[in-house]
Design brief:
Blueprint lengths: L1 H24 L1 E5 L4 H17 L4 E6 L1 H4 L10 E4 L22 H6 L4 E4 L7 H10 L6 E4 L12 H13 L19 H13 L9 E4 L11 H13 L4 E5 L1 H6 L2 H8 L3 E4 L3 H9 L3 E5 L2 H8 L4 E5 L4 H4 L6 E5 L11 H12 L1
Parallel strand pairs: 1-2, 1-4, 2-3, 4-5, 6-7, 6-9, 7-8, 9-10, 10-11
């Protein structure tokens, strides 16, 4: 009897190990061609897929300048450059679509148990061709998601993504509510060391923990009037709070030398940092102030005290996810064009708490 029990226990252990090995072998892929903010708002979906489908890993296909830093710092295990894939081939009419032996498209999309794509539309030639490609080397489920929620959707965008996935998966999945305290991105020790190095190079004490301010955004109408940011920085400095302006490609494209000189007269500024460098800088920051932008989502997602300024966009839908996010809503009509003394006052009070 004892020998039989030992035998049964061994078989059960082997079955469990086999099940676990099979689970770890199952992987998922998210095709996300958007910018940094879009990619960060997709991370809760990635975490949901990983947990609900018991996937051993999940990858993301997109622009590497926006997603290259995610492995090792988020729930994304690996990334694929969208520039390395002949995506245009998937848009041809399904009757004309053809794959060769050892086709690169099969190598890219084959082997995934689940694929969620923000490219293409349901029942389109693209979706049909992607399904065909993904199933050439194994069984794969493909779900096509809309990147933008309809105007009558009342929740957060991350909820819209999850609800779409559940509805189209055909499985009795239970939704995973995104927690405001979730840290979507984790800076590494190397990131923090790089952040301190950047502060030192800027002439600041590497341990000073400045409030980082980024006055730009991808959309001009989403940018709070620059004078407001300068006034906030000046007031904070008068209270003994160090500030540092972060200027990316969008700001440098729009700002004249005169404007940049004006910023320099108020605060130290850094220009054109990579996302990894920005993440390191944020890891050393005492707070972040910004518009509805990708960097604001990065700051919030990495756990930094984030003060997000919204004008024409809806914070209920696009609010950054993070454990320490405060949202301020300005007048959509005058957000980018006029000074806002009242909003500046409320923002400064919140930062100084």
């Amino acid at each position: 009897m004892v020998r039989q029990k030992i035998h049964d226990d061994i078989l059960e252990l082997l079955r469990e190990e086999g099940t676990e090995a099979a689970r770890k072998a199952q992987r998922g892929l998210i095709v996300q061609p958007g910018a940094i903010g879009d990619c960060i708002l997709t991370l809760p979906l990635a975490a949901f897929m990983k947990e609900a489908l018991s996937l051993g890993g999940i990858d993301m296909l997109g622009h590497t300048e926006y997603i290259g830093f995610l492995p090792g710092r988020s729930c994304i295990d690996a990334v694929i450059s969208i520039d390395s894939v002949d995506m245009h081939r998937l848009f041809v009419e399904k009757e004309a679509f053809d794959l060769a032996d050892r086709d690169p498209l099969i190598s890219t999309f084959g082997g995934y148990a689940w694929i969620a794509t923000f490219v293409g539309e349901p029942n389109s030639d693209f979706e049909h061709n992607l399904i065909y490609t993904a199933n050439c080397s194994g069984s794969s489920e493909v779900v096509t998601l809309a990147a933008k929620a309809p105007g009558d959707f009342a929740g957060h965008l991350t909820e819209f993504y999850e609800q779409q996935f559940i509805a189209q998966s055909g499985l009795p999945l239970k939704g995973r509510e995104v927690q405001p305290s979730d840290c979507l991105i984790r800076a590494t020790r190397a990131d923090t060391a790089k952040g301190r190095e950047l502060l030192r190079e800027a002439g600041l004490d590497p341990n000073c923990r400045p409030v980082v301010i980024q006055p730009g955004s991808g959309g001009v109408k989403k940018c709070w009037r620059l004078d407001n940011f300068l006034a906030v920085a000046g007031e904070l400095k008068s209270k003994g709070v160090e500030t540092l302006f972060l200027l990316g490609p969008a700001e440098l494209e729009r700002y004249t030398k005169t404007i940049i000189k004006k910023i320099a007269g108020v605060s130290i500024h850094l220009v054109e940092l990579s996302l990894v460098e920005v993440l390191g800088l944020l890891a050393c920051a005492g707070g972040f102030i910004g518009n509805d932008s990708g960097t604001t989502h990065l700051a919030a997602g990495s756990g930094v005290r984030t003060f997000a300024l919204f004008g024409p966009t809806n914070p209920s839908m696009y609010k950054p996810i993070g454990p320490a996010v405060t949202v301020f809503k300005g007048n959509p009509k005058t957000f980018a064009s006029r000074s806002s003394v009242g909003l500046r006052r409320r923002l400064i009070e919140a930062v100084l708490v």
